[in-house]
Design goal:
32 helices; 1286 residues; single chain
């Protein structure tokens, strides 16, 4: 097999040219030329990854037109089965499909046949130039056209941007990235360039500047950005500190971009000084775009960043996240772009080193406490994932479950059997004709990696040009060799393949990269920081030397592999880390320890028992080796290294201190500091204050230490390590939940909360822990509510402590405490399990006296926290009313005030929008909390309005979260349909992915509980997302697999009929009739209602949702469920379910031949044998002989099913496509308002996506009200409700 995979040619040169770009039709026309160097005497076939492209012609040496074939197995993954709904079967088919076009194995979608006329050039060893003419038409993924809607939208085109490497194949243009068996890249620096359209019409650019990179680099790290400067120019800003750095953004965002980019040069200087090497390129560009595929996408000499990360100098909370992303983009230029991975199995190296270097920057500029807390949180997330799903293996190359690579003959046989037949794929997926108008792929061009990029995005889990569809950016060919290593014998417990990025779960790859960073830090602890920097410098130095060579022999140093990295460490340091790689890289899982100890006073020793009780559970492995234990005694901190050789290890450690009776002496800590401690609560016979296991986080582990609460309190108050303090708070929190509380515990938490020398995140965690302690002591609590005196002491006015003083956020620690304390206090409950009246009055005073007029910083996050505090103060209604009878009169005075404040802040955020609409996000959460506790009717229409495009993405995601939370208890088919429509048809790829990801984290129903939403149409719709609807975006396909597994596991869904002969009743609102001209022929399950993408002429992007709400009308409860759409010419109050039509399900007596199929008609029915299905032969003859008798029985059976089985299917409402008005054909859009003249003070700019003070033109002012609007139902329109029997 290995001999068969050996490449017969090398790629030495590539030219890529985009000759036409049409923003109106969203098409790109291009040309690429590949120069191949034969390594064998004969070449029969050349494989090229060419997803989504319409290929017109393939020529050799510009004169010889050659035949070619196209086959993309990902267009329909499970081609031979139309009834199996088992995720194991899908995973098997998907693994085979992505392997058959994997460029790492020398495969691709486009197969070029080398004719006999060209064999003489191959035998002579002459270079062979392969030219391909192609086009892309309305790409589904990879290339993303951001075009505002409304009048003059073409004149407002912002440009062509990449949507990340999420697809299973190429996007944009043709590139070929081949790494030969020696690991060398075969590119010339001459063919890597950056396109900038200087003068262009809507149809095609006239002039293209090509900025050549003078150094060699991997083609998959190339990004192509195109901006029409005549239509909507990007503002170019040259960094004043380093002229090599250039920033691009929309003109209105220039001030905030200057504020965010002033730290970029600092990151370059930090990495150059730490790595002792210069930046490998001559320039760097940072581009901020709207509707980005992810927050960061890194390419050679350029990074594409979401403009939502931009913030002004007045914003506090966003600065930390923005700077971390910017620093990571610089680190990836060294490791990830300049030095890139050898194969997918080595991708942990590039991303791990980049994140490791980012952590070093954070440790220097954000502080050691921030860095240590970040590492601790990353470790906890990885451990939790492994215990839930399975072990994460960083180098899966030795996994023995690699699917068999199909041969050309098998591909031709499968292509003759058929693939989806529609307008986007040819009826026969394999062609050998020649000619100029041969269209292949899906309708000519759906890209799956960054914009026109012939590379793979390092910032997303799917980039690398390899895997399932291959190259990114264009018809690309990228071959990597797998590295050898210790065989991995563990069983693959996942429901997806870990050997290919295009078949992996997005959540798995996120944790995969987090674990790679932790492994890099563990390696630094083993070999030392200085030696680690020398190893990285060695790799970069060899890469710089290789990039200046004109021959391919030395280019292997531009690639990182696990074996090469291990050899370099041995060369530089003399240390062999093979055992470390075998245990931590080629094997997954983590150790789990449970420790108990007891002090023996007679022998003055600590008797310790360390257990590994869960070694057979998911994600947990047995650990044998050294383990560090720190014991804090009265005379100081003593470190011990224990050797763990069994699952139950009993150790004895001699104490260095003696117990103290009445002697007072300062106690030294591990930092060398000496402190005074109150030892009155310590055991008089024990010198042990507390004990820690693996305090340096030097291994992948989960630790549970059992010690008394007084020792946890000592550790919390006097330990200086933030991870030890967080562990102590978690332990005290668990004790408080179990009712094991004391006054000393309360005093310890208060002391930490008031101590300004403690890290602010520890203080915030202590505040929330104090809430749990106070609730457990509600019956015996004396004095004012917990934390009330602390808040008034820190933030109360000097003359009147009950009134908060004017805001001053110069002290950042006090700012975060100010945000946390109201939320923590709102969680307090009295003996009646309601929020104390004193706390509610305190919260209302905060709303009343909040004054930010003299503060230089923005208070939007603080105001959002106040709304969150009101939501936390809500408790279940004392009297549960019928949702239809809930009115303002049924609300108590306190909850009427809570609702009034929430509505007031919601309206204020529309008139004066804050940064990223954080207040609106919190208000939506608060409204949902009121609904869950019975204070508002559980209606979802307000969340649907806010979740629709083109509302600002943060508001949309918040509304989506509330809709998902709405599903388990009171949700129905309408809400689920709306979410699935977003996942299928939303214009923003990131929203489509987020809907599926959030549904997975908060499942609408539990597996096997028989929920009303657990229906066959849901199964079919999810199956279509995994099977054929997302063939170009592997991130969305992987998210759909995650959701399917969360709902149904590995089994076949119970709602699917066991036999194909049983009647299948499909709900009408989950599907619509077949669209023969649609992009994918999904049969009767195709139903999504496309979201309206036409906004008002005022503005396209970043709207805020429905209109302003008023409390003047008594029907405020119903008002929250109604939106007002202000369109030119009319103003209507609309209910999201207006115009709903009655749907009646019928069971038709259809024959087996006429029954609808969920798969294309050309797929043979005989290719699948379902359980309990009809047999062939004599039984079929028997059926034909008793046809009349069967028909009578069948009629009776269908009649019985109609009256008996039908009630168990849910009846539901179908939204009419015309929601805005009887005359309008467009569904209502939350942003369809007329622009008010009073909004001039709140300027905003199209596509900016930020709030007040950052991008003033983003959000229009809304001055209308919708008080008292209520949708009336026509008397003659009877609509079946859910569960109602017709």
């Amino acid at each position: 097999m290995k001999k068969d995979l050996q490449k017969a040619y090398k790629l030495s040169h590539q030219v890529l040219s985009l000759t036409g770009i049409n923003f109106t039709r969203q098409t790109v026309i291009g040309y690429t030329e590949l120069t191949l160097l034969p390594t064998k005497d004969s070449i029969r076939y050349i494989w090229v990854n060419c997803k989504q492209c319409c290929v017109y012609k393939v020529c050799f040496n510009d004169v010889l037109e050659v035949p070619f074939q196209y086959y993309d197995p990902l267009l329909n993954v499970c081609q031979d089965d139309n009834k199996t709904r088992n995720i194991e079967f899908l995973n098997s088919c998907l693994s085979t499909a992505v392997t058959s076009v994997n460029p790492e194995l020398g495969r691709g979608e486009l197969l070029v046949t080398v004719p006999s006329e060209a064999q003489h050039m191959i035998q002579e060893g002459k270079p062979l130039r392969v030219s391909i003419e192609f086009s892309l038409e309305k790409p589904q993924c990879g290339l993303h056209f951001v075009i505002p809607q409304g009048e003059g939208s073409i004149a407002e085109v912002r440009g062509l941007c990449g949507s990340g490497g999420g697809g299973g194949g190429g996007s944009g243009s043709s590139s070929k990235s081949h790494h030969n068996d020696q690991g060398g890249t075969s590119y010339s620096g001459k063919d890597v360039f950056y396109f900038s359209v200087k003068n262009a019409h809507a149809c095609s650019p006239r002039y293209i500047d090509m900025y050549y990179k003078k150094s060699q680099l991997i083609m998959r790290m190339l990004e192509i950005r195109i901006g029409h400067e005549l239509m909507m120019p990007f503002t170019v800003y040259v960094d004043p500190y380093m002229n090599e750095l250039t920033h691009f953004c929309l003109p209105q965002l220039l001030p905030v971009m200057k504020a965010c980019s002033k730290y970029l040069h600092q990151a370059f200087e930090f990495f150059e000084e730490m790595l002792s090497i210069r930046y490998p390129y001559t320039s760097y560009k940072q581009v901020y775009v709207d509707e980005a595929y992810s927050d960061l996408q890194s390419y050679a000499t350029m990074s594409v960043v979401s403009q939502n990360l931009l913030c002004s100098s007045r914003i506090i909370d966003q600065v930390y996240e923005t700077r971390e992303v910017i620093v990571l983009s610089v680190a990836r230029q060294f490791f990830g772009c300049f030095l890139t991975r050898y194969s997918w199995s080595d991708s942990w190296l590039c991303e791990g080193v980049a994140r490791y270097l980012t952590g070093l920057y954070l440790k220097k500029y954000f502080g050691f406490n921030h860095y240590k807390h970040w590492i601790h949180s990353e470790l906890q997330s990885v451990v939790e994932y492994e215990e839930e799903f399975g072990s994460i293996v960083l180098d899966p190359s030795s996994c023995p479950t690699e699917p068999k690579i199909p041969t050309l003959a098998s591909l031709n046989r499968s292509s003759k059997q058929g693939s989806p037949s529609n307008s986007n794929t040819p009826a026969k997926p394999s062609f050998s004709e020649t000619g100029r108008n041969r269209h292949f792929g899906a309708g000519g061009g759906r890209s799956s990696t960054p914009s026109g990029s012939s590379s793979v995005n390092t910032s997303t889990p799917f980039g690398s040009g390899g895997g399932g569809g291959g190259g990114s950016g264009s018809s690309s060919k990228s071959h990597h060799n797998d590295q050898g290593g210790t065989s991995y014998s563990g069983k693959d417990v996942f429901y997806f393949s870990v050997k290919n990025a295009h078949a992996c779960s997005p959540r798995y790859i996120d944790m995969y990269y987090k674990k790679s960073q932790l492994i890099m830090r563990m390696l630094e602890i083993r070999i030392g920081h200085e030696l680690m920097m020398q190893v990285l410098n060695k790799h970069l130095s060899l890469g710089l030397i290789a990039s200046e060579q004109n021959i391919c022999s030395g280019w292997s140093h531009l690639l990182l592999s696990t074996a090469n990295f291990t050899n370099q460490i041995f060369t530089v340091t003399g240390k062999n880390i093979t055992t470390f790689c075998d245990q931590c890289v080629r094997e997954g899982g983590h150790a789990k320890f449970k420790m108990n100890f007891l002090f023996n006073r007679k022998r003055n020793i600590v008797e310790m028992t360390i257990e590994q009780p869960c070694i057979n559970e998911t994600g947990i492995k047995r650990y044998d080796g050294p383990l560090m234990v720190w014991i804090q005694e009265l005379d100081g901190t003593f470190k011990h290294t224990l050797q763990i050789e069994h699952t139950v290890a009993k150790k004895e450690i001699v104490c260095h201190s003696k117990s103290r009776r009445n002697k007072k002496k300062k106690i030294p800590l591990c930092t060398g500091e000496e402190v005074d401690m109150d030892l009155s609560h310590l055991d008089a016979d024990s010198p042990v204050l507390w004990l820690r296991l693996d305090p340096e986080l030097s291994m992948m582990r989960s630790v549970r230490v059992h010690q008394p609460d007084n020792q946890w309190q000592y550790q919390l108050r006097h330990e200086r390590d933030v991870t030890a303090q967080i562990d102590a708070i978690n332990a005290l929190h668990a004790m408080a939940k179990a009712g094991n509380v004391s006054v000393e515990m309360r005093n310890s938490l208060n002391a930490v909360l008031e101590n300004e020398n403690v890290y602010y995140k520890v203080r915030c965690a202590a505040a929330h822990c104090l809430t749990t302690v106070a609730n457990s002591m509600a019956a015996t609590w004396n004095g004012p509510p917990a934390m009330m005196q602390i808040f008034r002491k820190m933030f109360g006015s000097y003359s009147c402590p009950n009134i908060i003083k004017q805001h001053d956020f110069d002290n950042l620690q006090n700012y975060f405490i100010l945000k946390t304390l109201p939320v923590a206090m709102a969680g307090l409950r009295n003996i009646h399990q309601t929020c104390p009246p004193e706390v509610l009055a305190f919260l209302f005073d905060l709303f009343k006296y909040s004054d930010n007029t003299k503060n230089q910083m923005s208070d939007n996050f603080y105001r959002a926290s106040l709304v969150d505090a009101l939501a936390a103060a809500v408790s279940p209604a004392a009297v549960q009313h019928d949702p239809a009878s809930i009115t303002p009169d049924t609300l108590s005075d306190s909850y009427r005030k809570i609702l009034s404040e929430i509505v007031r802040y919601l309206n204020l955020d529309k008139i004066l929008p804050c940064y990223k609409l954080t207040v609106t996000v919190s208000c939506l959460r608060a409204i949902r909390v009121l609904q869950k506790n019975g204070h508002l009717p559980p209606k979802s229409s307000i969340f649907m309005n806010y979740a629709a495009y083109p509302v600002f993405i943060d508001v949309r995601l918040s509304a989506i979260d509330q809709l998902i939370d709405f599903l388990p208890s009171c949700g129905g088919i309408n809400e689920l349909n709306f979410l699935l429509n977003l996942a299928e048809t939303d214009p923003m790829p990131r929203v489509r992915y987020e809907v599926l990801r959030r549904l997975t984290l908060n499942k609408p129903f539990k597996m096997g509980e028989g929920h009303k939403l657990d229906t066959e149409p849901l199964v079919e719709r999810l199956w279509a997302m995994m099977n054929n609807n997302n063939s170009y975006d592997s991130r969305i396909r992987g998210a759909a697999m995650d959701l399917y597994y969360a709902l149904y596991g590995r089994r076949r869904p119970s709602c699917i009929p066991a036999s194909s002969s049983e009647p299948v009743i499909l709900h009408s609102s989950l599907h619509t009739p077949v669209n023969p001209k649609g992009p994918l022929d999904r049969g009767p399950i195709m139903a999504p209602r496309r979201i309206n993408t036409h906004a008002s002429p005022g503005y396209r992007g970043g709207s805020m949702g429905p209109q302003v709400v008023s409390l003047d009308d008594p029907s405020i409860v119903q008002t929250l469920d109604v939106g007002v759409i202000n369109r030119p010419g009319h103003r209507v109050g609309v209910s999201p379910i207006a115009g709903a039509v009655r749907v009646k399900e019928e069971v038709l007596d259809v024959s087996e031949e006429d029954s609808p199929s969920v798969w294309p008609s050309h797929v043979s029915d005989s290719s699948v044998s379902l359980p309990d299905g009809d047999a062939a032969g004599p039984e079929r003859a028997h059926k034909s002989s008793s046809k009349k008798r069967k028909k009578d029985k069948k009629h009776k059976r269908h009649k019985r099913v109609k009256h008996e089985r039908l009630p168990r299917f849910d009846k539901f409402l179908v939204q009419d496509a015309n929601l805005s008005s009887p005359e309008s054909s467009n569904p209502p859009s939350p942003t369809g308002f007329g622009t008010s003249d009073n909004s001039a003070s709140v300027a905003s700019a199209p596509g900016t996506g930020l709030g007040s003070g950052v991008m003033p033109v983003q959000f229009p002012t809304i001055l209308g009200t919708i008080a008292g609007l209520k949708q009336e139902k026509p008397d003659d329109d009877h609509t079946l409700s859910e569960g109602e029997v017709d």
